[in-house]
Amino acid sequence: MARTRKIPQRMCVGCREMKNKKELLRIVRTPEGKVEIDQTGKKPGRGAYICPQFDCLQQALKAKNLQKALEHDIPDEVIEKLKSQI
Predict the structure, then answer these.
(1) Are 36 and 79 in contact (CB under 8 A)?
(2) What is the per-residue pLDDT across 57-67, written as a single tens digit (0 to 9) for each?
């Protein structure tokens, strides 16, 4: 009998929907306090996930959900990188 692996689910901080972890972008606040985009999904620190859609990013920034999730202000250069990746 074949075993199926459970696919990890994460909530988007923009639309608040549960989606597969691999479909989302991860933003991480490192232990040093630096906020950056985590391409690998494995960097240490507090992470937040967002859909790769402009609407979700706008919602997350407007409601300050990204800042609340990371417990830190988001630098403008990180916001610009997110916009360029989406």
Answers:
(1) no
(2) 999 999 999 99
Residue 3 in any domain: the answer is no
Q: What is the pLDDT of residues 2-20, one digit of tens each?
A: 678 899 999 999 999 999 9
1, 25 in Cβ contact below 8 A?
no
Q: Which residue has the tokens 């859909």?
A: 51
Provide the number of structural domains found in the chain.
1
Which of 28, 31, 34 is CA-nearest to residue 13? 28
DSSP letter at 83 equals H
Looking at the domain assignment, is residue 75 inside a domain? yes
Characterize 27-58 residue by residue with b for buried, 16 or more Cβ atoms within 10 angstroms of its Cβ, and e for exposed. bbbeeeeebbebeeeeeebebbbbbeeeebbe
From residue 47, give the alpha-carbon distance in Å to each of 29, 39, 67: 6, 12, 11
